[in-house]
Amino acid sequence: MSEKRREALYEGVLEIGDAKIPCAVLDDGTRVVTQREMLTALGRSPRPKGRESRAVDELPPFLATKSLQPFIDEDLRQSTKPIEFKPLKGDASRRTVGYQADALPKICEAMLKARDAGALHATQEELAKKAEILMRGLAHVGIIALIDEATGFQEIRDRLALQAILEKYLTDEWAKWTKTFPDEFYIEMFRLRDIPYPPPGKHKNWRPSYVGHWTNDIVYSRLAPGVLKELKRLNPRLPSGRRRRTFHQHLTREFGSPELRDHLARVIFLMKACTDWDDFKRRLNRAAQKYGDTIPLDLGETDERT
Asked: How far apart are CA 166 and CA 294, in angstroms?
């Protein structure tokens, strides 16, 4: 295992045929696929038992058999060293183990070479069939990606994916006004900033410009990629500098608004556990990443007040 536990910066699901394998990009740029689901896709138990379990920290158990050794080189051995990392979401103490992403085609290639050489046992034939299916799937995905990159369609594809997200979150009709942001959100925000709530002589609904700036940062920029930018486009500033409506009125009732409420509940819960704004932002950045305007890179959307 790695001495230093790495962290996932981006996560997703790699779909190859019928197999769905969670994958991640770690903080050092390493691309990994999760150990459990990769073994399942190859037709092996994710929880090796008995004699096989001894090989988990070296080679995947099913590669440790004597018949396969002539087809396993040092490159494959290095690729299949388990990597422990902290997942992007969920319990921070949860242990997730993966392999370098290029381990998957290398494993499949070794299995198919062994089959071609007649070295597999009868019990391993099913494994070779799984490897062949995965290799075909990888070839299909690979050629599509290469064509997209060569033709420039990759950027269009990303924009289409982004548009699909925005359609889920945003509505063309203004939602009926409801009190989406509870007073508790502002009470905790002012406490963490060490500002009286409300300031002397001000009504509790008083919202200076910097409150909108903070709200964009901790709420709207963390809902989904591109949402904050699209909200600014839909709800531009008036000559007075203010906006005609609040951002949350542009969220869909079916998806955007429920996601906002859930996010606000988590933010308020986190605020209550923090001592000051810096403490809160450190915890928030670990718990809910800040999205940019593209998928999946975080371009650091510049905040403005709502």
From this structure: 11
